[in-house]
Protein backbone atom coordinates (compact mmCIF):
# COMPACT_ATOMS: atom_id res chain seq x y z
CA UNK A 1 0.00 0.00 0.00
CA UNK A 2 1.34 3.41 -0.99
CA UNK A 3 0.55 7.04 -0.20
CA UNK A 4 1.13 10.18 -2.24
CA UNK A 5 0.85 13.66 -0.78
CA UNK A 6 0.80 16.61 -3.17
CA UNK A 7 1.55 20.04 -1.68
CA UNK A 8 0.10 22.14 -4.47
CA UNK A 9 -0.19 25.89 -4.80
CA UNK A 10 -3.98 25.75 -4.51
CA UNK A 11 -4.64 22.67 -2.37
CA UNK A 12 -2.84 19.97 -0.42
CA UNK A 13 -4.09 16.55 -1.49
CA UNK A 14 -3.55 12.98 -0.39
CA UNK A 15 -4.09 9.59 -2.02
CA UNK A 16 -3.66 6.18 -0.43
CA UNK A 17 -3.58 3.40 -3.02
CA UNK A 18 -3.38 -0.38 -3.11
CA UNK A 19 -2.06 -2.35 -6.09
CA UNK A 20 -4.75 -4.84 -7.09
CA UNK A 21 -3.48 -7.26 -9.72
CA UNK A 22 -2.96 -4.87 -12.62
CA UNK A 23 -4.55 -1.66 -11.35
CA UNK A 24 -4.02 0.84 -8.54
CA UNK A 25 -7.10 1.21 -6.35
CA UNK A 26 -7.44 4.46 -4.40
CA UNK A 27 -8.74 3.58 -0.96
CA UNK A 28 -8.54 7.03 0.63
CA UNK A 29 -8.39 10.62 -0.60
CA UNK A 30 -8.20 13.88 1.33
CA UNK A 31 -7.97 17.56 0.40
CA UNK A 32 -7.03 20.71 2.28
CA UNK A 33 -7.87 23.86 0.23
CA UNK A 34 -5.32 26.17 1.84
CA UNK A 35 -4.35 28.20 -1.31
CA UNK A 36 -0.67 28.27 -0.39
CA UNK A 37 0.17 30.25 -3.54
CA UNK A 38 -1.90 33.18 -2.31
CA UNK A 39 0.26 33.29 0.83
CA UNK A 40 3.34 34.68 -0.94
CA UNK A 41 4.16 38.25 0.07
CA UNK A 42 5.61 40.99 -2.14
CA UNK A 43 9.15 39.73 -1.47
CA UNK A 44 8.35 36.18 -2.54
CA UNK A 45 8.24 34.76 0.98
CA UNK A 46 5.41 32.68 2.42
CA UNK A 47 3.74 34.53 5.27
CA UNK A 48 3.64 33.12 8.83
CA UNK A 49 -0.12 32.64 8.43
CA UNK A 50 0.34 30.58 5.26
CA UNK A 51 3.03 28.47 6.90
CA UNK A 52 0.82 27.83 9.94
CA UNK A 53 -2.08 26.79 7.70
CA UNK A 54 0.25 24.34 5.95
CA UNK A 55 1.42 22.90 9.28
CA UNK A 56 -2.16 22.36 10.46
CA UNK A 57 -3.15 20.70 7.17
CA UNK A 58 -0.15 18.36 7.22
CA UNK A 59 -0.84 17.41 10.83
CA UNK A 60 -4.30 16.28 9.72
CA UNK A 61 -2.75 14.29 6.87
CA UNK A 62 -0.37 12.63 9.33
CA UNK A 63 -3.35 11.37 11.31
CA UNK A 64 -4.90 9.90 8.15
CA UNK A 65 -1.64 8.22 7.07
CA UNK A 66 -1.28 6.67 10.51
CA UNK A 67 -4.46 4.68 9.92
CA UNK A 68 -2.89 2.57 7.15
CA UNK A 69 -0.10 -0.02 6.96
CA UNK A 70 1.91 1.75 4.27
CA UNK A 71 4.84 0.27 2.37
CA UNK A 72 6.00 3.65 1.15
CA UNK A 73 5.02 7.33 1.36
CA UNK A 74 6.16 10.17 -0.88
CA UNK A 75 5.41 13.83 -0.22
CA UNK A 76 6.01 16.19 -3.14
CA UNK A 77 5.80 19.98 -3.24
CA UNK A 78 5.27 21.91 -6.44
CA UNK A 79 5.41 25.48 -7.75
CA UNK A 80 4.82 27.62 -4.66
CA UNK A 81 7.44 25.72 -2.67
CA UNK A 82 9.77 25.92 -5.67
CA UNK A 83 9.61 29.71 -5.79
CA UNK A 84 9.15 30.65 -2.12
CA UNK A 85 12.40 32.28 -1.03
CA UNK A 86 12.00 31.11 2.56
CA UNK A 87 11.06 27.50 1.71
CA UNK A 88 14.29 26.13 3.17
CA UNK A 89 13.65 27.84 6.50
CA UNK A 90 10.24 26.34 7.22
CA UNK A 91 10.59 23.02 5.39
CA UNK A 92 11.75 21.18 8.58
CA UNK A 93 8.59 22.35 10.36
CA UNK A 94 6.40 20.95 7.58
CA UNK A 95 8.31 17.67 7.59
CA UNK A 96 7.87 17.40 11.34
CA UNK A 97 4.13 18.02 10.95
CA UNK A 98 3.56 15.22 8.45
CA UNK A 99 6.32 12.89 9.68
CA UNK A 100 7.95 12.30 6.27
CA UNK A 101 10.57 14.04 4.09
CA UNK A 102 9.15 16.59 1.66
CA UNK A 103 10.55 16.65 -1.86
CA UNK A 104 10.41 19.93 -3.78
CA UNK A 105 10.23 18.61 -7.34
CA UNK A 106 11.03 20.46 -10.55
CA UNK A 107 8.31 21.41 -13.00
CA UNK A 108 9.66 18.88 -15.47
CA UNK A 109 9.57 16.09 -12.90
CA UNK A 110 6.04 17.16 -11.97
CA UNK A 111 5.08 16.82 -15.64
CA UNK A 112 6.63 13.36 -15.92
CA UNK A 113 4.75 12.14 -12.85
CA UNK A 114 1.50 13.64 -14.17
CA UNK A 115 1.93 11.81 -17.47
CA UNK A 116 2.80 8.55 -15.69
CA UNK A 117 -0.42 8.81 -13.69
CA UNK A 118 -2.47 9.46 -16.83
CA UNK A 119 -0.79 6.80 -18.96
CA UNK A 120 -1.29 4.10 -16.33
CA UNK A 121 -5.08 4.46 -16.38
CA UNK A 122 -5.49 4.66 -20.16
CA UNK A 123 -6.05 1.44 -22.04
CA UNK A 124 -4.56 2.38 -25.43
CA UNK A 125 -0.77 1.74 -25.32
CA UNK A 126 -0.21 3.02 -28.87
CA UNK A 127 -1.99 6.35 -28.50
CA UNK A 128 -0.23 9.64 -29.19
CA UNK A 129 -1.52 12.00 -26.55
CA UNK A 130 -1.13 15.50 -25.18
CA UNK A 131 -1.70 16.03 -21.46
CA UNK A 132 -2.42 19.48 -20.02
CA UNK A 133 -2.35 20.03 -16.26
CA UNK A 134 -3.28 23.52 -14.99
CA UNK A 135 -2.26 23.87 -11.37
CA UNK A 136 -2.38 26.65 -8.84
CA UNK A 137 1.15 27.86 -9.63
CA UNK A 138 2.21 26.29 -12.92
CA UNK A 139 0.93 24.52 -16.00
CA UNK A 140 2.51 21.35 -17.37
CA UNK A 141 2.14 20.25 -20.99
CA UNK A 142 3.35 16.75 -21.88
CA UNK A 143 3.37 14.90 -25.18
CA UNK A 144 3.79 11.15 -25.18
CA UNK A 145 3.21 7.86 -26.95
CA UNK A 146 1.65 5.21 -24.75
CA UNK A 147 3.80 5.00 -21.61
CA UNK A 148 6.69 6.92 -23.21
CA UNK A 149 7.16 10.63 -22.55
CA UNK A 150 8.45 12.44 -25.63
CA UNK A 151 8.30 16.06 -24.48
CA UNK A 152 7.59 17.68 -21.14
CA UNK A 153 7.51 21.37 -20.29
CA UNK A 154 6.47 23.36 -17.25
CA UNK A 155 5.18 26.93 -17.59
CA UNK A 156 5.01 29.42 -14.72
CA UNK A 157 1.36 30.31 -15.11
CA UNK A 158 -1.25 29.02 -12.68
CA UNK A 159 -4.74 29.67 -11.44
CA UNK A 160 -3.80 31.48 -8.20
CA UNK A 161 -1.71 34.26 -9.73
CA UNK A 162 -3.95 34.53 -12.79
CA UNK A 163 -7.01 35.01 -10.61
CA UNK A 164 -5.38 37.53 -8.28
CA UNK A 165 -3.66 39.48 -11.07
CA UNK A 166 -6.41 39.82 -13.64
CA UNK A 167 -9.64 39.62 -11.62
CA UNK A 168 -8.96 41.93 -8.65
CA UNK A 169 -11.78 42.08 -6.12
CA UNK A 170 -13.55 39.45 -8.22
CA UNK A 171 -14.40 41.76 -11.14
CA UNK A 172 -14.82 39.97 -14.48
CA UNK A 173 -14.88 42.13 -17.60
CA UNK A 174 -14.17 41.41 -21.24
CA UNK A 175 -10.97 43.43 -20.97
CA UNK A 176 -9.72 41.51 -17.92
CA UNK A 177 -10.49 38.15 -19.53
CA UNK A 178 -8.73 39.09 -22.79
CA UNK A 179 -5.70 40.37 -20.87
CA UNK A 180 -5.58 37.16 -18.82
CA UNK A 181 -5.84 34.97 -21.92
CA UNK A 182 -3.13 36.92 -23.75
CA UNK A 183 -0.89 36.69 -20.69
CA UNK A 184 -1.40 32.92 -20.61
CA UNK A 185 -0.69 32.60 -24.33
CA UNK A 186 2.60 34.46 -23.90
CA UNK A 187 3.87 31.67 -21.64
CA UNK A 188 3.20 28.99 -24.23
CA UNK A 189 4.16 30.73 -27.48
CA UNK A 190 7.84 29.70 -27.59
CA UNK A 191 6.96 26.03 -27.13
CA UNK A 192 3.90 26.17 -29.39
CA UNK A 193 5.64 25.28 -32.71
CA UNK A 194 6.75 21.90 -31.36
CA UNK A 195 3.40 20.96 -29.85
CA UNK A 196 1.48 22.18 -32.90
CA UNK A 197 3.34 19.65 -35.05
CA UNK A 198 2.74 16.71 -32.70
CA UNK A 199 0.41 14.18 -34.24
CA UNK A 200 -1.69 13.57 -31.14
CA UNK A 201 -4.88 11.52 -31.15
CA UNK A 202 -6.40 13.04 -28.01
CA UNK A 203 -5.75 15.85 -25.59
CA UNK A 204 -6.35 15.14 -21.90
CA UNK A 205 -6.88 17.58 -19.04
CA UNK A 206 -5.63 16.02 -15.82
CA UNK A 207 -5.81 18.79 -13.23
CA UNK A 208 -8.53 19.59 -10.75
CA UNK A 209 -9.02 22.95 -12.45
CA UNK A 210 -9.75 21.39 -15.83
CA UNK A 211 -12.06 18.79 -14.30
CA UNK A 212 -13.93 21.53 -12.40
CA UNK A 213 -14.45 23.49 -15.60
CA UNK A 214 -15.66 20.34 -17.37
CA UNK A 215 -18.14 19.65 -14.58
CA UNK A 216 -19.47 23.21 -14.83
CA UNK A 217 -19.92 22.80 -18.59
CA UNK A 218 -21.75 19.50 -18.25
CA UNK A 219 -24.00 20.32 -15.29
CA UNK A 220 -24.99 23.74 -16.60
CA UNK A 221 -25.47 22.43 -20.17
CA UNK A 222 -23.17 25.01 -21.68
CA UNK A 223 -23.13 24.37 -25.42
CA UNK A 224 -23.08 20.61 -25.92
CA UNK A 225 -21.47 20.11 -22.50
CA UNK A 226 -18.07 19.12 -23.85
CA UNK A 227 -14.76 20.82 -23.09
CA UNK A 228 -14.39 22.43 -26.50
CA UNK A 229 -12.88 25.81 -27.26
CA UNK A 230 -16.27 26.97 -28.53
CA UNK A 231 -17.97 26.03 -25.24
CA UNK A 232 -15.19 27.63 -23.19
CA UNK A 233 -15.86 30.90 -25.01
CA UNK A 234 -19.54 30.60 -24.12
CA UNK A 235 -18.63 30.08 -20.44
CA UNK A 236 -16.27 33.06 -20.60
CA UNK A 237 -19.07 35.26 -22.01
CA UNK A 238 -21.38 34.09 -19.23
CA UNK A 239 -18.79 35.11 -16.62
CA UNK A 240 -18.43 38.52 -18.23
CA UNK A 241 -22.19 38.94 -18.24
CA UNK A 242 -22.40 38.23 -14.49
CA UNK A 243 -19.45 40.55 -13.89
CA UNK A 244 -18.59 39.54 -10.31
CA UNK A 245 -17.04 36.26 -9.16
CA UNK A 246 -19.03 36.15 -5.91
CA UNK A 247 -22.25 36.44 -7.91
CA UNK A 248 -21.37 33.63 -10.30
CA UNK A 249 -23.76 30.80 -9.40
CA UNK A 250 -23.08 27.67 -11.39
CA UNK A 251 -23.92 24.06 -10.56
CA UNK A 252 -20.85 21.93 -9.96
CA UNK A 253 -18.61 24.59 -8.46
CA UNK A 254 -18.16 25.43 -4.78
CA UNK A 255 -18.09 29.16 -3.97
CA UNK A 256 -14.58 28.96 -2.51
CA UNK A 257 -13.26 27.51 -5.79
CA UNK A 258 -14.96 29.93 -8.16
CA UNK A 259 -12.02 32.34 -8.41
CA UNK A 260 -9.59 29.51 -9.19
CA UNK A 261 -11.90 28.13 -11.86
CA UNK A 262 -12.14 31.55 -13.51
CA UNK A 263 -8.33 31.84 -13.53
CA UNK A 264 -8.09 28.30 -14.88
CA UNK A 265 -10.64 29.07 -17.59
CA UNK A 266 -8.48 31.93 -18.91
CA UNK A 267 -5.38 29.70 -18.92
CA UNK A 268 -7.19 26.81 -20.60
CA UNK A 269 -8.49 29.05 -23.38
CA UNK A 270 -5.00 30.52 -23.77
CA UNK A 271 -3.17 27.20 -24.03
CA UNK A 272 -5.78 25.73 -26.39
CA UNK A 273 -5.60 28.77 -28.67
CA UNK A 274 -1.81 28.79 -28.69
CA UNK A 275 -1.39 25.05 -29.31
CA UNK A 276 -4.29 24.76 -31.76
CA UNK A 277 -6.26 22.40 -29.50
CA UNK A 278 -9.96 22.19 -30.34
CA UNK A 279 -11.21 19.93 -27.55
CA UNK A 280 -9.95 18.48 -24.28
CA UNK A 281 -11.05 15.27 -22.59
CA UNK A 282 -10.81 15.15 -18.80
CA UNK A 283 -9.29 12.23 -16.93
CA UNK A 284 -9.32 11.30 -13.24
CA UNK A 285 -5.58 10.85 -12.93
CA UNK A 286 -2.53 13.02 -12.55
CA UNK A 287 0.32 13.84 -10.18
CA UNK A 288 -0.75 11.83 -7.14
CA UNK A 289 -1.54 8.73 -9.21
CA UNK A 290 1.83 9.13 -10.91
CA UNK A 291 3.62 9.34 -7.56
CA UNK A 292 1.88 6.18 -6.32
CA UNK A 293 2.74 4.26 -9.51
CA UNK A 294 6.33 5.47 -9.28
CA UNK A 295 6.57 4.13 -5.71
CA UNK A 296 5.16 0.80 -6.86
CA UNK A 297 7.59 0.55 -9.79
CA UNK A 298 10.55 1.42 -7.57
CA UNK A 299 9.57 -1.38 -5.23
CA UNK A 300 8.80 -4.05 -7.81
CA UNK A 301 10.24 -3.35 -11.24
CA UNK A 302 12.16 -0.38 -12.52
CA UNK A 303 13.50 2.70 -10.78
CA UNK A 304 13.44 5.62 -13.23
CA UNK A 305 16.47 7.09 -11.49
CA UNK A 306 18.69 4.26 -12.77
CA UNK A 307 17.89 5.21 -16.35
CA UNK A 308 18.46 8.89 -15.58
CA UNK A 309 21.96 8.11 -14.29
CA UNK A 310 22.71 6.06 -17.40
CA UNK A 311 21.50 8.93 -19.58
CA UNK A 312 23.71 11.47 -17.80
CA UNK A 313 26.69 9.08 -17.95
CA UNK A 314 26.26 8.73 -21.71
CA UNK A 315 25.64 12.45 -22.29
CA UNK A 316 28.84 13.44 -20.46
CA UNK A 317 30.92 10.57 -21.89
CA UNK A 318 31.79 8.89 -18.58
CA UNK A 319 34.30 6.06 -19.08
CA UNK A 320 32.25 2.98 -18.09
CA UNK A 321 35.03 0.73 -16.77
CA UNK A 322 36.46 3.37 -14.46
CA UNK A 323 32.98 4.16 -13.19
CA UNK A 324 32.24 0.45 -12.70
CA UNK A 325 35.38 -0.02 -10.59
CA UNK A 326 34.52 2.93 -8.34
CA UNK A 327 30.91 1.76 -7.93
CA UNK A 328 31.96 -1.76 -6.93
CA UNK A 329 34.68 -0.69 -4.50
CA UNK A 330 32.57 2.08 -2.94
CA UNK A 331 29.79 -0.47 -2.42
CA UNK A 332 32.08 -2.94 -0.68
CA UNK A 333 33.63 -0.31 1.60
CA UNK A 334 30.29 1.27 2.50
CA UNK A 335 29.00 -2.15 3.57
CA UNK A 336 32.14 -2.63 5.71
CA UNK A 337 31.56 0.75 7.34
CA UNK A 338 28.14 -0.48 8.54
CA UNK A 339 25.93 2.61 8.20
CA UNK A 340 22.97 2.79 10.57
CA UNK A 341 20.50 2.91 7.64
CA UNK A 342 20.42 2.65 3.85
CA UNK A 343 19.54 6.34 3.43
CA UNK A 344 22.62 7.17 1.36
CA UNK A 345 23.47 3.81 -0.18
CA UNK A 346 21.77 4.29 -3.55
CA UNK A 347 22.89 7.93 -3.73
CA UNK A 348 26.49 6.88 -3.09
CA UNK A 349 26.44 4.31 -5.89
CA UNK A 350 24.88 6.79 -8.30
CA UNK A 351 27.46 9.43 -7.30
CA UNK A 352 30.22 6.86 -7.83
CA UNK A 353 28.93 6.14 -11.33
CA UNK A 354 28.84 9.87 -12.10
CA UNK A 355 31.96 10.97 -10.25
CA UNK A 356 33.82 11.88 -13.47
CA UNK A 357 31.06 13.73 -15.34
CA UNK A 358 32.98 16.98 -14.79
CA UNK A 359 35.85 15.79 -16.98
CA UNK A 360 33.86 16.85 -20.03
CA UNK A 361 34.28 20.45 -18.81
CA UNK A 362 37.88 20.37 -17.61
CA UNK A 363 40.56 18.07 -16.19
CA UNK A 364 41.27 20.74 -13.59
CA UNK A 365 38.74 20.83 -10.79
CA UNK A 366 36.57 18.21 -12.50
CA UNK A 367 35.02 17.30 -9.14
CA UNK A 368 33.67 20.86 -8.82
CA UNK A 369 32.28 20.85 -12.35
CA UNK A 370 30.77 17.40 -11.78
CA UNK A 371 29.12 18.52 -8.55
CA UNK A 372 27.50 21.46 -10.34
CA UNK A 373 26.29 19.35 -13.27
CA UNK A 374 24.74 16.68 -11.05
CA UNK A 375 23.02 19.17 -8.76
CA UNK A 376 21.39 21.11 -11.59
CA UNK A 377 20.86 18.48 -14.31
CA UNK A 378 17.30 17.51 -15.18
CA UNK A 379 17.37 13.93 -13.87
CA UNK A 380 13.98 12.23 -13.97
CA UNK A 381 12.87 10.55 -10.78
CA UNK A 382 15.36 12.42 -8.59
CA UNK A 383 14.44 14.95 -5.95
CA UNK A 384 16.33 18.17 -5.36
CA UNK A 385 17.60 16.78 -2.06
CA UNK A 386 18.91 13.58 -3.63
CA UNK A 387 20.75 15.47 -6.36
CA UNK A 388 22.19 17.86 -3.77
CA UNK A 389 23.47 14.94 -1.68
CA UNK A 390 25.04 13.30 -4.75
CA UNK A 391 26.57 16.65 -5.71
CA UNK A 392 28.20 16.97 -2.27
CA UNK A 393 29.58 13.44 -2.52
CA UNK A 394 31.08 14.17 -5.95
CA UNK A 395 32.51 17.48 -4.70
CA UNK A 396 34.11 15.72 -1.73
CA UNK A 397 35.70 12.87 -3.73
CA UNK A 398 39.07 14.68 -3.60
CA UNK A 399 40.74 17.63 -1.93
CA UNK A 400 39.86 19.19 1.41
CA UNK A 401 36.78 18.19 3.37
CA UNK A 402 36.07 21.58 4.91
CA UNK A 403 33.75 22.32 1.97
CA UNK A 404 31.32 19.62 3.20
CA UNK A 405 32.24 19.63 6.89
CA UNK A 406 28.72 20.40 8.10
CA UNK A 407 27.26 17.48 6.12
CA UNK A 408 29.88 15.16 7.63
CA UNK A 409 28.25 15.58 11.04
CA UNK A 410 25.82 12.95 9.72
CA UNK A 411 27.82 9.77 10.41
CA UNK A 412 26.24 7.80 7.56
CA UNK A 413 26.93 10.60 5.08
CA UNK A 414 30.55 10.76 6.30
CA UNK A 415 30.87 7.02 5.67
CA UNK A 416 29.53 7.47 2.15
CA UNK A 417 32.08 10.21 1.48
CA UNK A 418 34.90 8.06 2.86
CA UNK A 419 33.86 5.09 0.72
CA UNK A 420 33.78 7.24 -2.43
CA UNK A 421 37.12 8.96 -1.71
CA UNK A 422 38.90 5.68 -1.16
CA UNK A 423 37.30 4.05 -4.19
CA UNK A 424 38.44 6.97 -6.38
CA UNK A 425 41.92 6.89 -4.79
CA UNK A 426 42.40 3.19 -5.55
CA UNK A 427 40.97 3.57 -9.05
CA UNK A 428 43.64 6.18 -9.81
CA UNK A 429 46.43 3.88 -8.57
CA UNK A 430 45.47 1.35 -11.28
CA UNK A 431 46.37 -1.45 -8.89
CA UNK A 432 45.22 -4.94 -9.84
CA UNK A 433 43.84 -5.60 -6.41
CA UNK A 434 41.12 -7.92 -5.20
CA UNK A 435 38.25 -5.81 -3.95
CA UNK A 436 37.78 -8.30 -1.13
CA UNK A 437 41.25 -7.38 0.21
CA UNK A 438 40.21 -3.85 1.16
CA UNK A 439 39.34 -3.37 4.85
CA UNK A 440 38.06 -0.13 6.37
CA UNK A 441 36.39 0.90 9.63
CA UNK A 442 35.10 4.24 10.89
CA UNK A 443 34.09 4.84 14.48
CA UNK A 444 35.99 7.34 16.60
CA UNK A 445 38.67 7.23 13.90
CA UNK A 446 39.17 5.81 10.41
CA UNK A 447 41.23 2.64 10.09
CA UNK A 448 42.26 1.40 6.65
CA UNK A 449 44.06 -1.92 6.14
CA UNK A 450 46.14 -2.35 2.99
CA UNK A 451 48.63 -4.93 1.80
CA UNK A 452 52.29 -3.96 1.89
CA UNK A 453 52.76 -5.15 -1.68
CA UNK A 454 50.39 -2.44 -2.89
CA UNK A 455 52.88 0.23 -1.75
CA UNK A 456 55.59 -1.54 -3.73
CA UNK A 457 53.47 -1.89 -6.85
CA UNK A 458 52.47 1.77 -6.81
CA UNK A 459 55.01 4.02 -5.03
CA UNK A 460 52.75 7.10 -5.09
CA UNK A 461 50.06 5.27 -3.10
CA UNK A 462 51.81 6.25 0.14
CA UNK A 463 51.74 9.89 -0.99
CA UNK A 464 47.98 9.81 -1.68
CA UNK A 465 47.29 8.08 1.62
CA UNK A 466 49.25 10.78 3.43
CA UNK A 467 47.15 13.44 1.66
CA UNK A 468 44.03 11.56 2.79
CA UNK A 469 45.33 11.58 6.36
CA UNK A 470 45.82 15.35 6.14
CA UNK A 471 42.33 15.95 4.73
CA UNK A 472 40.57 14.10 7.54
CA UNK A 473 42.91 15.57 10.19
CA UNK A 474 41.84 19.06 9.11
CA UNK A 475 38.33 18.28 10.35
CA UNK A 476 39.64 16.53 13.48
CA UNK A 477 39.15 12.93 12.38
CA UNK A 478 42.13 10.54 12.68
CA UNK A 479 42.94 8.52 9.56
CA UNK A 480 45.11 5.51 10.34
CA UNK A 481 46.64 3.17 7.75
CA UNK A 482 47.62 -0.33 8.84
CA UNK A 483 49.91 -2.28 6.49
CA UNK A 484 49.47 -6.05 6.48
CA UNK A 485 51.66 -8.73 4.84
Automatic annotation (TrEMBL):
Protein's name according to its UniProt entry: Exopolyphosphatase
Q: Which CDD domains does this entry report, sorted A to Z?
A: ASKHA_NBD_EcPPX-GppA-like
**Organism (species):** Solimicrobium silvestre
- Domain spans labelled Ppx/GppA phosphatase N-terminal: 20-297
Q: Which residues form the Ppx/GppA phosphatase C-terminal domain?
A: 305-468
Listed Gene3D superfamilies: 3.30.420.40, Exopolyphosphatase. Domain 2, Hypothetical protein af1432
Q: What is a single molecular function from GO for this protein?
A: pyrophosphatase activity
Transmembrane ranges, per UniProt, are none
Amino acid sequence: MYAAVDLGSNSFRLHVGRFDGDAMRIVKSAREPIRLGAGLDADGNLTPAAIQSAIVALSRFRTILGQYALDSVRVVATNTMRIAKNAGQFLPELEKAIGYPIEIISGEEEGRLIYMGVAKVLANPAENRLVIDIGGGSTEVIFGHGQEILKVASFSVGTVKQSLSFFPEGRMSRESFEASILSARSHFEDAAPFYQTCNWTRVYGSSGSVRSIAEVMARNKIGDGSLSLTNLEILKDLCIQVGQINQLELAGIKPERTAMVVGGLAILIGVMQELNVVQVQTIEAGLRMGVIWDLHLRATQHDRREQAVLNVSAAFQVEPQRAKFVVELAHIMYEQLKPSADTYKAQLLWAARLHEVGLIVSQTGYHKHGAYLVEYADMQGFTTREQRNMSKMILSQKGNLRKVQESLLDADFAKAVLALRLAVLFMHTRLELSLADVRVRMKSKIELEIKGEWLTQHPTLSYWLEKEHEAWSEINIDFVVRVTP
